User: What shape does this take?
Amino acid sequence: MKIYLLLLLVLTSCTPSSELDGPFLVIDVIDGDTLKIDSLEKIRLSGINTPEKKECHYQESKEKLNELVSNKSIYLEKDYTNKGRYGRLLRYVHTKDQDINKFLVLNGYAKVYDKYAYDTKKYKELKELEHIARLQKLGVWTCKETIIN
Assistant: This one.
């Protein structure tokens, strides 16, 4: 029952609220957890980590993010910290009907970035979704090597 409630939470529509900034147009997808918006800001999807180039499932993660957001309007939700160490905005990304960070974790395109658990406001929710993906051996959970968190 808990799994179904989590799935419902992830898949239900995300209506822009006062906590969300936007809309912004996605003009480039750099990798599975980084994109560029029309204001030319780089956005790092907060709380998650996808494979780097030459790692297992890199291309699939990048292609999925591209499919979900490229040339589409998105809304951005701030995390506790505004910017990461490379100057990118740390954000939860939403379309009008989906929480992209949660979708990527639930479907095995990303793992939760445990290194920054203390600084991730949706850490617990993301970990619950990661558990589902891991049990179902989806995406990155089929890889022999691991993503360094």
Notes: The longest helix spans residues 123-135. The helical segments are 2-11, 58-69, 100-106, 123-135.
